[in-house]
Amino acid sequence: MMYQNGRRRGLIKPITRRGTASRDPFSSCTDTSAPFDHDDKAHQGRRRFSSKQTKKILLIGLVASCLLIASSWGRGGEGGSDSMICGRTIGINLSRHKTWHTPYTPSLLSDPTNDKGGILLKNGDGFGGGLNHISCFFHAFDLSYDKKAPIYITKDAKWLWQILLPLFPFSGTTAADEKWAMLEKILGVTILESEHTAKLSGLEFKTPATNELFYYHSSDLTSSTIRNHRDTILRQLFQQSAGVCSGVSAAAKIQQTSVQKAKYTVMHLSPRATGGYLGKLNAATGRDNSAALEMTPNYIISILKPLGLLQNDVFVVGEHQNDELEVTRLFQDPDLLKVMKKIQVDQNNQVYLALLADAYLGNPADVTSMWIARMRYALGMKNTFILTEPKNMNGEGVWVSSVDDKTYLDMYNRDKLGMWMG
């Protein structure tokens, strides 16, 4: 049985936009062939421009068209560059793989051999809050690899789309069919109308629950392969997120707080409930992570002072950001009270505020915080502190990241992170 782009040929038709030619946002504008035959002698007498002039005009038009298409897709948000998101510079160029510090890996399943069906992600109960479902989603690819079966997703799988689409919004002018087609290409999956459509296909599907996916891990995939795949998918989602900086979104909030160009730090205060997982995390990592969870003034200062960020704004995000008992010790600390800032934004805006910060202090026991850190690493953002360790520098105790900014394999190591693995 033949497969094509992760689906069986002839069984389920890919989603395309009706009434228009298919547009591929990933194709590069490199076609410089002219649509006219300038050597046709029958038309030479009527020609008002020379062949050289005509080619020049066509080339200018082609370049303008490419620029228009690129801007219409809004790569990297509305920052005007694939090296920027919402006006802030990131560490890589999203459209140039050569600038990536991990290799382009769009799929784990290069040659499916299961001709009976696949993995179906459908509507059902969610598992936990925050970005837990991002873990569920990516772990489905690991299951797909182990079972050698492609992934199918229904449009009504709310547990996934209600997290993924607001986090990586397309331009408001993108038609629905076009949006689904783009997602199919980025994710390497087949998107179906519903579970009923899947049943009509005659295929056999494994339909794992979200809690099963959250805890799933592959014994065959290496940490580097998993990381490379996650990085590639995330970068492509960021590249096509044209709507992320429009309306009441992250960019607007960043501009309102006057930090679009100014340096700033984001620290993640998580619910006390995450403290219940601290023992398990410590056992998995082999170190005490309580300092990152407690986020004391001394911990924050020891990180920001060597970076020269102690005089810049520090924004508090996380589900516990508005608990006065938790934040009072920070806002009343004499070394922090002038820079500590509260910001009233929803989860997605908190994520982008943290992603684009000059430094991010995260909580490793919080799944959402861990995914923010992974996204920052994928984007090449420096100064991410989530798995930390104490060190003596120039006779002074400081906290530093124990994760290598270029490899960050610990973030995808099951043996070191347990259920917090990405």
TrEMBL record:
**Disordered, as annotated region:** 1-48
Basic residues bias spans: 1-11
Which key words tag this protein in UniProt?
Answer: Membrane, Transmembrane, Transmembrane helix
What stretches pass through the bilayer? Answer: 57-74
Q: What is this protein called?
A: Uncharacterized protein
Source organism: Thalassiosira pseudonana
